[in-house]
Write a structure and sequence with these properties.
- By secondary structure, the chain is of the alpha/beta class.
- The protein has a single domain, classed as SGNH hydrolase (Rossmann fold), CATH 3.40.50.1110.
- The protein is 45% helix and 14% strand.
- A five-stranded parallel beta sheet has the order 2-1-3-4-5, sandwiched between helices.
- Helix 6 links the parallel strand 4 and strand 5.
- Helix 2 crosses helix 7 and helix 5 packs parallel to helix 6 (121-137).
- The termini are close together.
- The relative contact order is 0.17.
């Protein structure tokens, strides 16, 4: 039974933590603003830690994803990619995260990441991880959290990596529909 308020937790890294931004501009806050008209009400919790890899997220999952979470958006992998963590390790960590969340009866929406093409063969292997994990674990997939934001000067901070407030707004716009769909599916189970 879903409570009067649904809780969405974003388990992620600097992209969900709001690196370099005011708290009001972070992804949890901007996503919450896009879900404000949902019935029942939706509360979005941020569980993003700058610098975290999928392995780090797996280690802190039990501590940082509250029991009352109705949906966990798993948005990890950017730092794995930057560190060239082997794609099979990323896949195994993501599957373990999903498995641990399932053991706690918490549904998952997987948010994908993509490597820039100049990463060559690594980019192909890394980019294939998210669709494979979604199929294997049978969870919904948002293919690329930073679609239309990554590498676009108008949407990133001066470091050319992290999104600025406008970039996070685009990310929240893209993330809201899959979150709404996942929450609606929960209400019908």
């Amino acid at each position: 039974m879903i409570d009067a308020e649904q809780v969405v937790t974003l388990l992620g890294d600097s992209l969900t933590a709001g690196y370099g931004l005011k708290p009001a501009d972070s992804l949890p806050r901007q996503l919450a603003a896009r879900l404000v008209s949902e019935t029942p009400a939706v509360r979005v919790l941020g569980a993003g830690v700058s610098g975290d890899t999928t392995r780090d997220g797996l280690r802190r999952l039990d501590r940082d994803v509250p029991a009352q979470t109705d949906l966990c958006v798993v948005a990890l992998g950017a730092n794995d990619m930057m560190q060239l963590v082997p794609a099979d390790h990323v896949r195994d960590n993501l599957l373990s995260i999903i498995d641990k969340l399932r053991q706690r009866d918490i549904p998952v929406l997987l948010s994908g990441m993509r490597a820039p093409p100049w990463f060559g063969a690594y980019a192909w292997a890394f980019d294939a991880v998210y669709p494979e994990v979604a199929r294997t674990a049978n969870v919904p997939l948002m293919p690329f959290l930073m679609d239309g934001v990554a590498l676009h000067p108008a949407y990133v901070l001066p470091d050319r990596i992290h999104p600025n407030a406008a970039g996070v707004g685009k990310m929240a716009d893209a993330l809201a529909p899959p979150v709404q769909a996942a929450l609606a599916a929960l209400r019908t189970r």
